Amino acid sequence: MKTVVIYKSISGFTKKYAEWIAEELKADLLEYKNTNIDQLRIYDLIIFGGSLHAAGISGVNIIKKNLHILTDKKIIIFTTGASPQREEIFDEIKQNNFTPEEQEKIQFYYFRGGFDYNKLNLPNKILMTLFKWKIQHNRNKSPDEIGMLAAYENPMDFTKKENIDKLLKYANSL
Ligand SMILES: Cc1cc2nc3c(=O)[nH]c(=O)nc-3n(C[C@H](O)[C@H](O)[C@H](O)COP(=O)(O)O)c2cc1C
User: Fold this and answer.
1) Which of the listed residues 10, 47, 121, 166 has the most CB atoms within 10 Å of its CB?
2) What distance, in Å, lies between the first and last C-alpha atoms of the chain?
3) Taking each helix axis from N to C terminus, what angle separates 122-136 and 143-153, rounded to the nearest 10 degrees?
4) How far is the CA of 151 from the centre of ligand 1 (A)?
């Protein structure tokens, strides 16, 4: 099965997962900014990974907007975020980002990435500073919010290669 992994990553967490997946599946690896939909026609399995930004999957529209021309392809999408890898978080991201019809066509995974403020570009630094202020002003901070605040001081990296096992198993079953 001819496979491609496309990724959109700012600070490298999604890129790391994309590289691991491409290596394990012996797939081609493309960066989102260098990819156009025509390049994808030669593949049987298309895997897209983008990081979570305000609950949305960055860059995912390259797949969602073109589903009508990718009807003969198998499609996997994964996202990475700072949030813990919990079932309810996975469900929330899936419902926020995909219609029921899209969910039928797309196999979806969430992998915990990390957070490194210093590696963000200026617009994202500004957004994340606003988000930090919002958490700081919240009197009843959740454990996840407390963890997130700590990550502004000390970058966190939760990437683990074993997180991709389920995705690999699914891809190899196609
Ligand atoms: C502007 C912005 C918004 C973010 N929003 C979320 C979010 O809603 N949920 C989450 O879990 N992580 C969020 N994050 C954290 C990133 O998704 C996380 O750091 C991700 O692993 C980064 O991957 P990358 O380095 O490949 O871009 C956000 C980060 C930025 C910069």
Assistant:
1) 47
2) 8
3) 130
4) 12
CB 78 within 8 A of CB 167: yes
Which amino acids bring their CB within 6 angstroms of ligand 1? Answer: 9-15, 51-55, 80-83, 113-115, 120, 124, 127-128
Q: Which residues of 82-115 are buried (b: 16+ CB within 10 A; e: fewer)?
A: bbebeeebbeebbeebbeeebeebbbbbbbbbbb
Does the predicted model carry a pTM greater than 0.85?
yes
SS3 state at 114: strand
Residue 56: the pLDDT is 95
- State how far the Cα of 113 lies from the Cα of 57, in Å rounded to an integer: 13
CA of 84 to the centre of ligand 1 (A): 12
User: Tell me, what's the pLDDT at 67?
Assistant: 93
